[in-house]
Write a sequence for this structure.
């Protein structure tokens, strides 16, 4: 079990600038869980959220943005790499110890280590491990090539196809993070069947906003069940749960 990894402040800050404070905390705790267990994050996100004492929606949002889901759970490419390196060192260390203390597997002498002024702190299972860019970012050999998120182009399509909805006046890091997550999900889905460019992904977003325009509820033409008027905006649309429901047509039943 790994008990230590190096924390590179600059790398971490660059990779997580788009996260909210809650998402940043969730990412740190997810990384700690990953390294501590040396296993992918379980796919049962409610269980993970309880163990990390965080909101389930925040956990899901960070997992979708920074990790990749497989049959074994949520993977983080750099974590997997560093754990593999650590295990390799661990095996090599055990072999070296066995050789050092004799082929018969005799135990090393029970002499406590002598501390010196320039001695490094002794830690269990120490290994150099970096906190790195999101695991969703593909390795160079990865088959999927995902174009960079086109923030302003998506906002322009939103304004073009949904002129009656609230305009985007502020584009802060939280909203950027939501769009980056949804962009990646869409791009990965499209890339399963064809090589894609940013134009292909933008075409999808144009059709998506047209789809929203056909919903009387989302465009404020009917009231919600509690009688209040409601009109969606881009941030609301991009939140994971709302986005999934829109794609599934949940808000198109009153047309």
């Amino acid at each position: 079990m790994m008990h230590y990894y190096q924390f590179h402040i600059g790398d971490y800050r660059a990779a997580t600038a788009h996260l909210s404070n809650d998402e940043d905390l969730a990412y740190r705790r997810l990384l700690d869980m990953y390294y501590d267990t040396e296993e992918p994050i379980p796919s049962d996100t409610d269980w993970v959220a309880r163990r990390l004492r965080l909101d389930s929606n925040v956990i899901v949002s960070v997992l979708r943005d920074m990790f990749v889901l497989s049959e074994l759970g949520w993977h983080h490419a750099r974590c997997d790499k560093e754990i593999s390196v650590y295990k390799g060192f661990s095996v090599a260390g055990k072999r070296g110890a066995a050789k050092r203390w004799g082929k018969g597997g005799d135990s090393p002498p029970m002499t406590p280590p002598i501390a010196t002024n320039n001695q490094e702190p002794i830690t269990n299972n120490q290994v150099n491990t970096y906190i790195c860019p999101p695991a969703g970012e593909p390795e160079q050999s990865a088959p999927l090539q995902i174009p960079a998120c086109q923030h302003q182009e998506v906002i322009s399509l939103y304004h073009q196809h949904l002129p009656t909805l609230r305009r985007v006046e502020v584009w802060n890091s939280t909203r950027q993070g939501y769009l980056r997550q949804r962009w990646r999900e869409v791009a990965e889905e499209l890339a399963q069947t064809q090589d894609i460019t940013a134009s292909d992904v933008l075409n999808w977003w144009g059709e998506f906003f047209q789809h929203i325009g056909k919903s009387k509820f989302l465009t404020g033409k009917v009231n919600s069940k509690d009688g209040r008027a409601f009109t969606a905006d881009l941030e609301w649309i991009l939140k994971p749960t709302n986005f999934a429901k829109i794609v599934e047509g949940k808000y198109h039943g009153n047309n």
Observations:
- Residues 151-247 form one domain.
- The mean pLDDT is 77.
- The longest strand covers residues 68-70.
- The radius of gyration is 24 Å.
